[in-house]
Design a protein that fits this description.
The chain is of the alpha+beta class and 563 residues long. It contains 13 helices and 17 strands.
Length: 563
């Protein structure tokens, strides 16, 4: 009987322990249109190690119960690629509402201090992102910015077009001068020198064809395109000093091009007729007739003598007006860029001032909850390079409370063993040679000759995933100019790494990992102890900047490649 009583006591103790370890999550998914089930998994494990599953009702409600033996990070997975990362503790009873359109956001929660901390921090991050989006929207809608940008684009287009047209005109003038030299060389007192007729026809025919080839795009521009480059319609009262220069630039281009067209039109039409006649005579076999050849030679000679002087006479003024126009457009362009820089800086300063207040709130929230595991999901927003004291405080607090936690141990080890000196600015970038998801070895040195962003990230890193859209946009803008991204993942799960690449549309070819997580050889070599962490490498393979994110990355690439 005593044995039975003792056995009953053990069973009771076992049930009591299991009940204490059980986590209950009463949840709702707002704006849900696609999710039908939710699974609870460890943040480290794959789909086969599911702790619990639950159906999601048509109204978005679900109820999960699962044995949780240790405090750690877990995933509420709604699909293989869409999940919510959270900190759970044995015995938690949590109410939470999530947003299906943004699973990093907690709509409301109760029952868990870690969930409350996550909500506060996520809301602050979202506030900062909204602040940036609003600043960008206000900048985009700024009338003065719109005017400057539109005019700058028109000036650039006009410059490019006028440069091409001026090139065609000057080429026609030079060909005319060449034709005149051939006539002078092979004639005397108006007559072709003996046995020089064939040579003169050959030389003039080639020169005429080159002139005609340059005339065709010039004619098309004058008759159909020129009006679209009229800059006088974009005058603005905000830039009275620029308007007269725009009108002068337009007037110079219009005047010189019209004068050249008036002179070249009849000349080039005459040349076209002569070339067509020669081609026809050659095709019909009539060029063997001496009289025919002499008659054609005379026509070619007369055309040059009739028009060459008037064509050559426009050269000096044309070049002079071209140079003046180029100086004007360069000055206008410089002033417009200066105005745009001032406008952007004003919005940037306003954003920086407001963002600094939010960042202070984020830091204070992190420090107030420094030993809460939820901090792990947000602390990498502040890099070790710029916020070493904050990182040290958070990691040390977490290590004191959770010394056996896998992520905490890795961060603590990184914090105390990283050799940052090996990846200092203006030093050669250490080689990285890892496999891509398909098992192909890729080397950082393969990209020598390009500007490269070495981007340390991971699929489980919230700040990394939030930064990825900006990296994608930056890559799309500058890739054709010689910019490449070399992504180094600190994942340990290959499937999640691949899924994140697809989900975030990371379209560049260089994705590598040794799948060692924080123990990655590349992370140790570069002294990476928080992510996202970036290094900008120049064409010679030297590190020229570290920790570039968001607008800082954009400004760095603008300084290299231009707008």
């Amino acid at each position: 009987m005593k044995q039975l009583i003792f056995s009953g006591f053990l069973v009771g103790m076992l049930w009591s322990t299991m009940a204490q370890n059980k986590v209950e999550i009463h949840g709702r998914v707002a704006n849900n249109k696609e999710f039908t089930r939710v699974s609870l998994l460890s943040v480290y494990d794959d789909e086969r190690d599911t702790l619990a599953r639950a159906e999601i009702s048509p109204e978005g409600h679900f109820h999960l119960q699962a044995p949780v033996k240790r405090s750690d990070l877990y995933r509420l997975a709604f699909s293989p690629r869409q999940y919510f990362v959270c900190a759970l503790h044995p015995g938690d009873k949590i109410n939470v509402e999530l947003d299906a359109e943004n699973l990093t956001r907690i709509v409301s929660t109760s029952g868990s201090s870690s969930f409350n901390t996550s909500k506060k921090l996520a809301d602050l991050y979202l506030e900062n992102q909204n602040l940036l989006n609003n600043a960008n929207n206000r900048l985009r809608d700024d009338k003065t910015q719109q005017y400057c940008s539109a005019l700058l684009q028109k000036i650039n287009d006009a410059q490019q077009t006028n440069k091409k047209i001026d090139g065609h005109v000057l080429a026609m003038i030079e060909q005319t001068q060449q034709s005149r030299q051939w006539v002078n060389r092979f004639t005397a007192r108006g007559k072709v020198l003996p046995d020089k007729g064939d040579s003169l026809r050959f030389m003039l025919n080639n020169s005429f064809k080159a002139t005609i080839d340059n005339y065709r795009p010039f004619k098309l521009y004058m008759q159909e395109v020129r009006e679209s480059h009229d800059l006088t319609s974009v005058n603005s009262p905000n830039f009275a000093d620029i308007n007269p220069r725009i009108e002068r630039y337009h007037s110079l281009a219009d005047t010189r091009q019209q004068k050249a067209y008036d002179v070249l039109q009849n000349y080039c039409e005459t040349l076209s007729s002569i070339v067509s006649l020669r081609d026809s005579l050659t095709f019909n076999g009539k060029m063997d007739n001496k009289t025919t050849k002499e008659k054609l030679t005379k026509q070619m000679q007369n055309a040059v003598q009739q028009y060459a002087e008037s064509v050559e006479n426009i050269k000096e003024d044309y070049i002079k007006q071209t140079d003046e126009g180029n100086k004007l457009s360069a000055g206008i362009e410089a002033d417009l860029k200066k105005n745009l820089t001032t406008i952007v800086q004003t919005y940037q300063q306003n954003f920086n001032r407001e963002s600094a207040l939010i960042n202070d709130s984020i830091k204070n929230t992190l420090l107030s909850n420094k030993d809460d595991l939820s901090v792990l999901m947000f602390m990498d927003y502040f890099s070790q390079d710029s916020h070493a004291d904050l990182q040290n405080t958070l990691v040390n607090a977490l290590q004191a409370k959770y010394p056996d936690n896998r992520i905490v141990k890795e961060k603590y080890e990184q914090l105390h063993t990283a050799k940052i000196a090996s990846s200092s600015k203006n030093t050669p970038a250490p080689e990285i040679a890892f496999n891509n998801p398909e098992g192909k070895l890729l080397k950082l040195s393969d990209l020598r000759g390009k500007y490269v962003l070495v981007d340390f990230w991971a699929s489980w890193c919230g700040p990394c995933r939030r930064e990825n859209p900006h990296v994608v946009n930056t890559y799309a803008k500058y890739h054709d100019k010689g910019f490449e991204v070399f992504s180094v993942s600190l994942d340990t799960d290959k499937a999640r790494w691949q899924q994140a690449i697809v989900a975030d549309k990371l379209t560049w070819s260089y994705h590598v990992s040794d799948l060692k997580g924080w123990k990655s050889d590349a992370a140790r070599l570069y002294g990476v102890n928080s992510i996202p962490c970036t290094f900008l490498i120049d064409k010679e393979g030297n590190i020229i900047a570290k920790g570039l994110r968001g607008e800082e990355l954009t400004r760095a690439l603008q300084s290299i490649f231009g707008e």
